[in-house]
């Protein structure tokens, strides 16, 4: 809504270097960007396959800015193919010109609750959190 967008425009982003943030520049990629945000900020809890396309993207972009990561994401053919294959399954095919939803991710990085919305210029810090209260803190 317009009210929500006005609220979002007043939120300030955090420049925390420990948070992996990717600016969303590909249309209708918010679900994929949200999943990348979730995985990227929880790599210590994930066992990647040795030939993981996602792991390679995260390694290659780890020192980049959010805008540079977006460019690398745009140009990654393997990620595009995975995204398109899932979209083609039809579980989430919006009618052309009628997309009216958006996905974001909440993560715990260094005991801080971050909201990662690829439409923003960076992560939004919502304050302290811990494993036991993460879901309630995000809500």
From TrEMBL:
Q: What is its EC number?
A: 3.4.19.12
Protein's organism: Carassius auratus (Goldfish)
Site residues (Transition state stabilizer), renumbered to this chain: 24
Q: Is Acetylation one of the keywords UniProt gives this record?
A: yes
Record's GO cellular component terms: endoplasmic reticulum membrane
> Which protein are we looking at?
Ubiquitin carboxyl-terminal hydrolase
* PROSITE patterns listed in its UniProt record: UCH_1 (PS00140), UCH_DOMAIN (PS52048)
Q: Name one GO molecular function term.
A: cysteine-type deubiquitinase activity
GO BP annotations listed: protein deubiquitination; ubiquitin-dependent protein catabolic process
Q: Which Pfam families match?
A: Peptidase_C12
| Main subcellular localisation | cytoplasm
Q: How does it sit in the membrane?
A: Lipid-anchor
């Amino acid at each position: 809504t317009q009210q929500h967008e006005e609220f979002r425009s007043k939120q300030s982003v955090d420049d925390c270097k420990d948070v992996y943030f990717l600016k969303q520049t590909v249309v209708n990629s918010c679900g994929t960007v949200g999943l990348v945000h979730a995985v990227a900020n929880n790599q210590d809890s994930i066992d990647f396959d040795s030939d993981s396309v996602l792991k390679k993207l995260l390694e290659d972009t780890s020192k980049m800015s959010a805008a540079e990561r977006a460019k690398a994401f745009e140009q990654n053919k393997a990620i595009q193919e995975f995204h398109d294959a899932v979209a083609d399954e039809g579980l989430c095919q919006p009618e052309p010109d009628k997309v009216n939803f958006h996905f974001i991710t909440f993560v715990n990085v260094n005991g801080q609750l971050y909201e990662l919305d690829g439409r923003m210029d960076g992560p939004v810090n919502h304050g302290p959190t811990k494993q036991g209260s993460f879901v309630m803190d995000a809500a």
